[in-house]
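TASK: fixed-backbone design
INPUT:
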């Protein structure tokens, strides 16, 4: 058992996992969160009496949480009720065509054959096999690694047996280019290209390695009973049960540094909390911008506006629906995919014809809500992270709502909103919640073959400072954030054990030695 004092900043998924694992290991943990509740980007909007998940809505890679809970001596199923989805998502195009993807490979292939022909279905099977090979190659040497590594180091870690799988990911090619090699039907290129947006990127600039996301979804998508908000609430409760002190509504003004490394944190109120280690679960761009003090700013690479990932405009509402058979996860594609991403990343504006994601949160694979009954809907379009140069004011919000509803009407989905006022969020709102990001929701965009290797790792050059969250390695999303939190906790445990044998000192230039 350990006795070191650790402050975790930020009660997002990564911070909660770090606090939980460190408290389980006997560390004296204080978790500081500026918001009134845990969750970070995994947030909830209240519309009338309804609570609507307004952040991540897809739960995948449950093995990450299964392993975390095994380390706690329990199981995920003992604390959370999950229902595996049959339909992964329903996709619709403005020509009236639709396609459901399933967790079952054969059912997806049959659906693709009905949409685009038997040849495309066979190409899909080949694509699925390739995605699985890429995923299995990268899981160990990249996803589970404590830091990002370049292709040469990654190839060394993968070994000769893993090299074919690594090269099958075409690490120097773009996702869109490789999809064009697999599929002739532009609708399928558009469908699988959308996976680049899962890490806030354009399929025309993201690396082909992101094809692995297709395999991740096919491994399983789960619905969380009670909503995604149950995940942070459950993690916070377990961390508290194991002795972690959790303080909400407490912004951190500064991470303090002494001769030997980290000394603690100073809150906005002026209170100082001593610490042997600090785990920062915040956007690395905020660290680089000096939001936590000038002495620690150099511990994350600076992020220029051009490097930012996607932001979003979201709409949470309750409404009666008709005209389109919604399932839990639905995607309504734009006519011109390249024009959509050119508008966002080149022109830095909202696209005229956006792709729209709709999460119908009262639906699953069972019976639909009764006709005439309002249901909870979360709608999202991708947007540029430009909140520091452009203000999304009330008129812009109204235009965004109109644009979303008009586009859904064109696809056949008719909404009759309830009397409860919808909640709209823009890059301006996200920038307010996550400073120094411009509203970017995924950290650095994964553009170019080196992008995945540029995210900071868990351990920094400053003794006692560790990073976690979606802007760090291995990337954004609920399971990836959990992995980063686990990696940060592991680094703290390892380094604390080492310093008990050999005290670390800070040398000139910011490097450390034992």
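OUTPUT:
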């Amino acid at each position: 058992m350990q006795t070191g004092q650790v402050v975790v900043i930020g009660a997002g998924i990564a911070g909660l996992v770090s606090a939980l694992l460190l408290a389980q290991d006997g560390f004296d943990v204080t978790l500081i969160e500026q918001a009134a509740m845990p969750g970070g980007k995994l947030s909830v909007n209240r519309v009338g009496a309804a609570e609507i998940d307004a952040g991540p809505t897809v739960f995948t890679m449950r093995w990450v949480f299964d392993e975390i809970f095994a380390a706690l001596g329990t199981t995920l199923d003992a604390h959370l009720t999950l229902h595996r989805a049959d339909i992964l998502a329903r996709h619709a195009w403005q020509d009236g065509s639709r396609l459901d993807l399933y967790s079952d490979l054969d059912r997806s292939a049959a659906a693709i054959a009905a949409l685009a022909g038997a040849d495309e279905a066979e190409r899909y099977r080949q694509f699925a096999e390739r995605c699985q090979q890429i995923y299995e190659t990268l899981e160990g040497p990249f996803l589970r690694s404590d830091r990002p590594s370049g292709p040469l180091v990654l190839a060394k870690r993968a070994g000769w047996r893993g090299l074919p799988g690594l090269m099958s990911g075409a690490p120097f090619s773009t996702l869109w280019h490789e999809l064009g090699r697999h599929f002739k039907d532009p609708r399928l290129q558009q469908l699988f290209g959308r996976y680049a947006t899962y890490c806030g990127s354009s399929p025309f600039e993201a690396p082909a390695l992101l094809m692995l996301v297709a395999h991740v979804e096919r491994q399983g998508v789960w619905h969380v009973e009670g909503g995604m908000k149950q995940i942070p609430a459950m993690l916070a409760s377990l961390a508290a049960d194991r002795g972690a002190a959790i303080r909400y509504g407490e912004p951190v003004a500064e991470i303090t540094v002494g001769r030997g490394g980290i000394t603690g944190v100073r809150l906005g109120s002026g209170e100082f909390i001593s610490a042997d280690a600090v785990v920062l679960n915040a956007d690395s761009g905020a660290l680089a911008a000096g939001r936590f003090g000038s002495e620690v700013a150099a511990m994350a690479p600076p992020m220029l506006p051009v490097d930012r990932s996607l932001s979003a405009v979201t709409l949470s509402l309750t409404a009666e629906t008709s005209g389109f058979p919604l399932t839990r996860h639905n995607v309504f594609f734009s006519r011109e995919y390249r024009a959509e991403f050119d508008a966002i990343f080149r022109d830095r504006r909202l696209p005229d014809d956006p792709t729209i994601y709709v999460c119908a949160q009262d639906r699953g694979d069972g019976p639909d809500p009764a006709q005439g009954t309002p249901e909870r809907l979360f709608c999202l379009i991708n947007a540029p992270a430009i909140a520091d140069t452009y203000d999304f004011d009330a008129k812009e919000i109204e235009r965004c709502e109109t644009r979303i509803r008009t586009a859904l009407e064109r696809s056949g989905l008719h909404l009759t909103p309830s009397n409860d006022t919808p909640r709209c969020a823009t890059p301006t709102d996200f920038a307010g919640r996550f400073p120094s990001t411009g509203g970017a929701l995924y950290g650095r965009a994964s553009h170019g073959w080196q992008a995945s290797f540029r995210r900071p790792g868990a351990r920094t050059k400053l003794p006692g400072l560790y990073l976690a969250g979606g802007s760090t390695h291995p990337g954004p999303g609920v399971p990836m954030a959990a992995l980063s939190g686990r990696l940060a906790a592991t680094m703290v445990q390892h380094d604390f054990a080492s310093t008990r044998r050999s005290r670390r000192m800070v040398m000139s230039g910011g490097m450390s030695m034992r």
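COMMENT: Residues 53 and 466 are 29 Å apart (CA to CA).
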